[in-house]
Amino acid sequence: MIEKIQIVDILKKIFRRIDWLLVSFILPIIIAGLFTMKSFTPLEDSGIFFDKQIIWVSLGFIIFFVFSFIDFRFLKRTDVLVFIYLSTSLILLALFAFGQASYGAKSWFNFNIFSFQPVDMMKLVLVLILAKYFSRRHVEIRDIKHIFISGFYAFIPFMLVLFQPDFGSAMIIFFIWLGMVLVSGISKTHLFVVFISIVALFALFWFFIFAPYQKARIFNFIYPLTDIHGTGYNAFQSTIAVGSGEIVGKGLGFGTQSRLKFLPQPQADFVFAAYAEEWGLVGSILILLLYALVIWRILHSATLGAYNFEILFGMGIAIFFMSHILVNIGMNLGLMPITGIPLPFMSYGGSHLIFEFTGLGILMSMKKDARAVNRDDTKNEFLGI
User: Fold this and answer.
1) Is the pLDDT of residue 74 over 80?
2) Mean of pLDDT values over 66-87
3) Is the Cβ–Cβ distance between 255 and 277 less than 8 Å?
4) How far does Cα 268 stand from its chain's mean position?
5) How high is the pLDDT of residue 46?
6) Residues 168, 20: Cα–Cα separation, whole Å
7) Which domain covers residue 351, as residue numbers?
8) Helices assigned H by DSSP within the chain
9) What are phi and psi of 105, to 5 degrees?
């Protein structure tokens, strides 16, 4: 009888701790990615991407549920976060010596059984350390020095990733910093002055330092469709795939761009284009709606935070996901440069999935510290009311 009561108590804790609405929105996105991979995989490959992705998704959910019950209050300690940040930065540095080159960038460690991309971990670590930094300085947050100090935390991984070179991940790191600066309450006037300075510096380099071939590379990176037989080939094929889906799509398994291998990396970088070709505008809108609901639930969990750190961490996780979604879908539509950024929960690969679920698991664990009594006071303090 006592054991049954204990089991019931554990189940109640599980249902209270986990945001099941969030899970219900993530599952259809995962399923859409799995079916897309299965549909274009040749029979002789026996659905290799599909089978491996099932393993990574299962491991991701295990991490999500386990991490939801770990007490992560130790992450609020400055010494712990600084140690994690420095360790992750050293791992990024080690890539230059021991990393495996893939598509021209040394971004991966290859362990034969699996590969690991440490920048995925750094994105989560950056959210944590910025949440910690801004949560301690809400009173004096309008001081311009906090833009530069927080920017320094982002600058180190940004440069380490940029020189791999992984332009896409460097963009995500920048967007995480920018997003958290904006929600932290820093003076927008000071931020505007910083950006004007950056633009002026770039203009100086463009007119007086960059060689013609360097300007051509930057131009092709920003406008890939100007060279559809070269640097813009991937973007061109992606836009064809998305457009050919029309309103309701060609149907599952009938996406010619991916099945005939015109579309590069249809299981990873261009999974949205492969999906849009088969499901059309209707299916694309449905996926975008699901992503919007995922972001809504993440922000909802953030508002339940008992203190500024929890609130800022939840907002940082939302910015993390929004950055990936906007950059990936933007490049699939030909609106942004091709960067190799995965689409959360849809793109093939274990590294990004593991840390997406890790971030959500930590967010769920923080809900247990929410205090209804002081929640309104905390929000008002955070918003400067």
Assistant:
1) yes
2) 89
3) yes
4) 14
5) 45
6) 31
7) 20-383
8) 2-17, 20-40, 48-67, 78-98, 118-135, 145-162, 167-184, 188-208, 212-222, 233-244, 256-259, 271-303, 308-332, 351-366, 375-383
9) -125, 135
Token readout for 42 is 């040749």
CA 346 vs. chain centroid, Å, equals: 12
Separation CA 186–CA 146 (nearest Å): 8
Quote the pLDDT of residue 379.
47
First to last CA, the chain: 51
Q: Does any domain span residue 15?
A: no
Distance CA 259, CA 249 (A): 15
CA-CA-CA-CA dihedral for 315, 377, 72, 367, to nearest 10: -80
User: Distance between CA 340 and CA 269 in Å, rounded?
Assistant: 5
The sign one gets for the Cα dihedral 132, 136, 142, 144 is: negative
When mean pLDDT is compared across 58-72, 250-264, 303-317, the lowest value belongs to 250-264
Does any domain span residue 14?
no
What pLDDT was estimated at residue 374?
A: 45
Residue 98 lies in a domain: yes
Task: Answer whether residue 46 is part of any domain.
Answer: yes
- Our CA angle for 224, 34, 48, nearest 5°, is 90
- Residue 157 pLDDT exceeds 70: yes
Number of domains in the chain: 1
Alpha-carbon dihedral angle through residues 310, 314, 320, 325, given to the nearest 10 degrees: 180
Q: What angle do CA 142, 143, 146 make, to 5 degrees?
A: 100
**Rounded Cα–Cα distance for residues 119 and 49 (Å):** 22
User: DSSP 3-state assignment of 354?
Assistant: helix
Quote the pLDDT of residue 383: 43
Tokens at residue 368, please? 């247990």
Please say if the pLDDT value at position 208 is more than 90.
no
Alpha carbon distance 292, 374 (integer Å): 29
